[in-house]
Design a protein that fits this description.
DUF1104_sf, elongated, about 70 residues, DUF1104
Amino acid sequence: MKKTLILFFLVISFVFAKVDYSEMSTQELIAIMGYVKAENKKQFIQELKSRVATMSANEKKAYDNNLAKLNK
């Protein structure tokens, strides 16, 4: 019974969990450009834009290459 209750709450927490892009690295954000769900896209774009100023040259190059995927 106890295990079932814990499993139930775990499943519920995954269902209602929001994606927190601030916890992801810049490289991870660049890698998932184009794969973000429509309902999370606004938050994703805001987080990505806030990091553009601090990106390295390699990150900016990857960002520019993947920018077309973001607008799909």
